[in-house]
């Protein structure tokens, strides 16, 4: 009876009869009848006059799926697990990178509909559907395949798949996050000191990643990443390190999940011929970097693009890039020990389509989402620019849809002072705030906005902002200014910030 109680959304008597093998003919008859009823009501629902599937019908559908596939199904801790492992599986579970996250699932959709869809990409090791107490699903699930290739195929063919008329699901890679971001660390602390301090109060610490300050390599940047042996160990550490309960070196630290590293399939990485070089001196020039990387084999470097203390070195041939990475990693340039890795390509087209919801394309000048004067139509601002820009050495994807709501302040509610820079990107809804946030997190000087005006033929004052970020200004690009004029100051500033973010993404086609 335990399994019968574990699986919600299914008639208890029906489950008990099935699992205990009592009255075989009874449950077989109920199964056939419920499946037949389900088909009839689904047909009626398709015609717009049907009812929602009952618990018994859900049970019938799920039992039929279990009978057909041989997979087990258990519900516990708010999730229903199909498989894990599948029938006949021997050996350990599939490695990291084999699981995908599935979002925007209709709340009345269950495994009997989901499994056939996701089996198109390959063999399912396990499907975990998040469940409400009421028996509805929570709108998302995790599907683990037996290989990474199958998971990548699922993303390719099922992301934005219309699973029901007008209902599109989202599918992306799912990785157990084993890394924490630790902020507000004293800048004079070395890697060994931070590692020892984390090991004192948390378990399962594997490594600590610390980046040197851009202007003073003897100091850190005020933050570190702590890698743990498992997601569970990282989660327990995050709970242990809640600000206020633990103050290393007498400082209140900031603790949060680190942004997951961008996952690029092996086939794409095999074509990369660009190196990402970190920990450069601010004063090191692009010519100097090119000369150093050309030393082992003259003429192999096509070009170099440097931004503050990191750079991208483009090679003519991949084999030369791989050889240079092996030779140059750990070498000193202008007194700084550099780190060299293969750069990870960013699919800008798909990112822009996602972040701008189809409103603009990479080459579009109409950044704000409202048309030119002569087009005459929508005048409200579109979604803000949220591009792949380096944030604390991480790849920062755009935030999800920003909730624009107000809530009442009840008497006695506790309000705590907070810095905007301790928030996540999802708390910002404008490009102006995003640009300021990115500049701060990258230790750049704040953006400077200079307002200019002109007069239109009909006498209107038109405005445009020029944006200067002195920390990354060079001879080729000292400022950023869009080629469009606006009628309000707010629109002009937002447009300039979006244009700047787009330009920074253009200058940084490969991110790590």
Brief summary of the model shown:
The protein is α+β, with helices and mostly antiparallel strands and 512 residues long. It has helices at residues 2-6, 12-19, 24-46, 55-69, 111-118, 148-158, 191-201, 231-240, 266-269, 286-294, 318-328, 348-355, 431-441, 489-507; strands at residues 73-76, 79-83, 99-103, 124-131, 137-145, 161-164, 167-173, 179-183, 205-212, 220-228, 254-257, 274-278, 301-307, 310-315, 332-333, 336-337, 339-342, 344-345, 389-391, 394-396, 448-455, 461-468, 510-511. Strand 9 and strand 10 form a beta hairpin.
Features:
512 residues; seven-stranded antiparallel β-sheet; four-stranded antiparallel β-sheet; 14 helices; globular; disordered N terminus
Describe the structure.
The strands form seven sheets. A seven-stranded antiparallel beta sheet has the order 1-2-4-5-3-7-6. The protein has 14 helices and 23 strands. It is globular, with a radius of gyration of 27 Å. The chain is an alpha+beta fold and about 500 residues long. The longest helix is centred in the N-terminal third of the chain and has 23 residues, at about 25-45. The chain starts with a helix and ends with a strand.
């Amino acid at each position: 009876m335990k399994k019968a109680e574990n699986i919600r959304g299914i008639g208890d008597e029906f489950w008990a009869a099935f699992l205990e093998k009592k009255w075989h003919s009874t449950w077989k008859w109920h199964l056939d009848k419920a499946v037949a009823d389900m088909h009839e009501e689904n047909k009626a629902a398709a015609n717009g006059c049907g009812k929602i599937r009952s618990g018994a019908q859900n049970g019938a559908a799920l039992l039929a799926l279990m009978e057909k596939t041989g997979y087990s199904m258990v519900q516990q801790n708010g999730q229903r697990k199909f498989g894990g492992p599948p029938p006949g599986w021997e050996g350990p579970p599939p490695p990291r990178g084999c699981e995908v996250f599935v979002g925007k699932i209709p709340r009345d959709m269950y495994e009997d509909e989901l499994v056939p869809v996701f089996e198109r990409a390959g063999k399912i090791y396990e499907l975990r559907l998040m469940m409400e107490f009421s028996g509805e699903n929570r709108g998302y699930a995790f599907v683990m395949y037996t290989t990474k290739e199958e998971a990548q195929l699922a993303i390719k063919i099922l992301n934005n798949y219309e699973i029901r008329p007008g209902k599109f699901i989202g599918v992306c890679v799912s990785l157990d996050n084993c890394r924490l971001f630790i902020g507000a660390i004293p800048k004079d602390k070395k890697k060994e000191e931070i590692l020892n301090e984390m090991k004192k109060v948390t378990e399962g610490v594997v490594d600590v990643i610390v980046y040197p300050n851009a202007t003073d390599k003897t100091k850190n940047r005020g933050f570190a990443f702590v890698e743990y042996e498992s997601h569970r160990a990282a989660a327990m550490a995050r709970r242990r390190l809640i600000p206020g309960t633990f103050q290393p070196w007498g400082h209140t630290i900031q603790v949060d999940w680190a942004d997951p590293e961008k996952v690029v399939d092996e086939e794409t990485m095999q074509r990369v011929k660009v190196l990402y070089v970190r920990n450069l001196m601010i004063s090191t020039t692009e010519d100097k970097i090119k000369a150093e990387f050309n030393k082992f084999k003259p003429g192999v470097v096509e070009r170099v693009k440097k931004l503050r203390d990191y750079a991208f070195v483009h090679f003519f041939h991949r084999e030369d890039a791989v050889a240079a990475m092996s030779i140059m990693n750990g070498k000193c340039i202008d007194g700084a020990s550099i780190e060299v890795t293969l750069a990870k390509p960013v699919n800008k087209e798909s990112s822009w389509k996602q972040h701008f919801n189809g409103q603009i394309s990479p080459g579009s000048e109409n950044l704000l989402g409202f048309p030119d004067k002569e087009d005459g139509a929508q005048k409200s601002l579109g979604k803000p620019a949220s591009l792949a820009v380096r944030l604390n050495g991480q790849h920062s994807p755009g935030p999800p849809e920003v909730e624009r709501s107000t809530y009442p302040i009840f008497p006695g509610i506790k309000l705590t002072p907070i810095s905007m820079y301790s928030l996540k990107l999802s708390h910002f809804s404008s490009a102006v705030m995003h640009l300021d946030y990115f500049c701060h997190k990258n230790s750049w000087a704040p953006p400077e906005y200079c307002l200019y005006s002109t007069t239109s033929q009909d006498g209107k004052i038109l405005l445009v902002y020029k944006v200067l970020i002195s920390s990354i200004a060079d001879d080729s690009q000292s400022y950023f200014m869009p080629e469009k004029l606006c009628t309000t100051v707010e629109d002009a500033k937002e447009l300039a910030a979006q244009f700047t973010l787009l330009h920074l993404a253009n200058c940084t086609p490969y991110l790590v």
